[in-house]
Amino acid sequence: MAEGDNRSTNLLVSPGLLSPGSRARPPDVRGFKHRGLVPVTRRGPGPSLPGQATMPGPRASWAAETASLEEQLQGWGEVMLMADKVLRWERAWFPPAIMGVVSLVFLIIYYLDPSVLSGVSCFVMFLCLADYLVPILAPRIFGSNKWTTEQQQRFHEICSNLVKTRRRAVGWWKRLFTLKEEKPKMYFMTMIVSLAAVAWVGQQVHNLLLTYLIVTSLLLLPGLNQHGIISKYIGMAKREINKLLKQKEKKNE
Q1: What is the DSSP string of 87-127?
Q2: Where are the domains of the chain?
Q3: pLDDT at 24
Q4: Which residues, listed in sequence order, are joined to residue 9 by a DSSP beta bridge?
Q5: Are 45 and 23 a contacting pair, CB within 8 Å?
Q6: Could you give the count of Cα atoms lying within 13 Å of 239 in the half-sphere of its Cβ?
Q7: Per-residue confidence (pLDDT) for residue 19, from 0 to 100
Q8: Less CB within 10 Å around the terminal CB: N or C of the chain?
Q9: pLDDT score of 55
Q10: How much of the chain, in percent, has pLDDT values that exceed 70?
Q11: Number of H helices, E strands in the chain
């Protein structure tokens, strides 16, 4: 390669951030200075290193989305790691703490009994304040100089899981529209029955209680999955169903 072609591009050293061959845009270096990450120089353009495979299109797109999300959430890194520890129940008292905090919040809402407009306004106002204050206060509270390689790797995994969840949601949304185009009658019946069932449940159960149960279940779900509780009970249910099916087959014989 000619000397005139040697151009430098700044990349951020972050374990797991970029896979070999990835062309994802690196995050802003200034946002990571407090975490001890330093930019290095890579020569380019030029041939790939020996053994360096070219990443397929979908995988490169996944890496690019993950890198972009990491850049957007870099101010929330410490908070996200702490929330991840709580939701995965790294300590025994985290599950009752989650239920206690959620119960306290809903008791306050029940006591104040705000209107829908007031509740939505307060919720959005809280999100705006958190979006402004968290990136400023988080490094001072958690200690930005303690950011380690393991924490950066876990932060990358969290962002990758968020991208995976977003892609799944978009995929289900597209499948719904595909069903509408290909099988409109089935789409119509499915939507009517599902919405009618939801409306019936909402009529039978108080709105605030139903919301409390949904929020509590969603917050406990990662810990249940992490500790294998969900898979355990699903396995038990499958075994019981198989036993019932075998008993019916024996009776039919």
Answers
A1: HTTSSTTHHHHHHHHHHHHHHHHHHH---HHHHHHHHHHHH
A2: 184-248
A3: 44
A4: 42
A5: no
A6: 6
A7: 44
A8: C
A9: 46
A10: 75
A11: 8, 2
